[in-house]
Every structure is written in structure tokens, then in C-alpha cells.
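Students often ask why inverse folding is considered easier than folding. One informal answer: many sequences map to the same fold, so there is more than one right answer. In these notes we will look at a single instance of the problem. The structure comes first.
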């Protein structure tokens, strides 16, 4: 077969076209790489936004909420409801203690304006014993002085009443709303321990 020959001008044309296509390919590849990186950035930022403002799983660390929550269980925390409503007695919340960098999980017991006291093994709200049988059936050791909960504050306690550092401790005290991260609505792991938490009704 006779080999085709090209004139110098044809060779220059073909070389220019090849270089143009190569540059276009590089440009397309760079664009695709940039597009992929932007996609990853959007996914990461969306995930961070969801964890920061909407909901996230948090692992239980410690025994202060036994038997409701057990060490190393994963709980699901939603952060939206407190945008439109205030915490209620019986809610399980994630909060930060003064000076702490790690969050704590506790149950809301006292609300703004209420006076909370532990006396003779039970919790009194404004001098009246509350029924806590939904999550506690023991006797609380030790008495406390009456504490009046301030505006936009909460008095919190661990369900393991005799093994919890909480608002009864003077170094903790009442927790400002601003230090409340969200509300625990379920245990999600281990899967065989899955449980949702409904609102507590106090008789």
C-alpha cells in the first residue's frame, strides 16, 4: 500500500489541531477535577451543618444516666425543637457544664422560676414531691438546699441519681438555655437496644 504523504502546511495543521485537542482535554479534565472537589466540599459542609444545627448521633460516655442510657450506646440527638419551644420537665438533653469542653447528657427536672430540693430521698418542686417512677424508683442519698431556677435556665439531674454530677453540685448549678445542645430522642446503637423516648407525663 502506498504511504500517504503530507505537505508541510498539512503537517503544521495536523500538529496544531492535535495540540488544540490536547489542551481541550486537559482543560476538561481540570474542570472535572474542580467540579468533583466542589461536590465533595458541598457534601462535607452539608453534613457539618446538619450535625451542628439539626441532628447528630452522640455516644454515651459514663454511667450517670443508667438505666435509661448505658455507657457506649449511641443516642440520636435532635436540635430543632428547641428553636421553637422551651425544654420541658422530663426531657433528656445534651448540655455543657460551666468550664467543660465535653457535653453531658442529663434529664430536665427544674424549670425557670421553680424551686428544686432533694429531701428525704425524693425530689421536691416548689415543696411538692414529683413522681419520677417513669425513670427512677430508688431513694436519692443526701439532701440539698432549695435552689430557685433562674430565667432561661434548667435544673438537670442524671437518672442514676446516686452516681451523677449534676445541678445539685455547686460547681455545676443550673444550666443556661444557651448551653443546651439538643434533645435525645432515641438510642440507635447497638441495634438490639433501639428505643425511642417519648415525653414524660408527671401525674
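Output (designed amino acids):
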Amino acid at each position: 500500500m502506498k504511504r500517504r504523504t503530507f505537505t508541510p502546511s498539512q503537517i503544521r495543521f495536523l500538529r496544531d489541531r492535535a495540540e488544540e485537542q490536547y489542551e481541550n482535554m486537559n482543560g476538561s479534565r481540570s474542570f472535572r477535577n474542580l467540579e468533583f472537589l466542589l461536590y465533595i466540599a458541598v457534601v462535607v459542609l452539608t453534613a457539618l451543618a446538619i450535625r451542628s444545627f439539626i441532628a447528630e448521633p452522640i455516644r454515651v460516655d459514663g454511667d450517670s444516666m443508667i438505666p435509661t442510657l448505658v455507657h457506649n450506646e449511641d443516642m440520636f440527638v435532635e436540635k430543632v425543637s428547641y428553636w421553637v419551644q422551651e425544654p420541658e420537665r422530663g426531657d433528656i438533653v445534651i448540655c455543657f457544664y460551666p468550664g467543660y469542653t465535653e457535653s453531658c447528657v442529663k434529664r430536665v427536672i427544674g424549670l425557670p422560676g421553680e424551686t428544686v430540693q432533694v429531701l428525704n430521698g425524693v425530689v421536691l418542686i416548689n415543696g411538692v414531691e414529683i413522681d419520677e417512677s417513669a425513670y427512677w424508683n430508688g431513694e436519692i442519698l443526701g439532701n440539698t438546699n432549695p435552689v430557685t431556677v433562674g430565667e432561661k435556665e434548667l435544673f438537670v439531674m442524671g437518672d442514676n441519681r446516686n452516681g451523677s454530677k449534676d445541678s445539685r453540685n455547686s460547681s455545676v448549678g443550673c444550666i443556661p438555655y444557651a448551653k443546651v445542645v439538643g434533645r435525645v430522642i432515641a438510642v440507635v446503637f447497638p441495634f438490639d437496644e433501639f428505643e425511642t423516648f417519648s415525653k414524660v407525663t408527671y401525674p
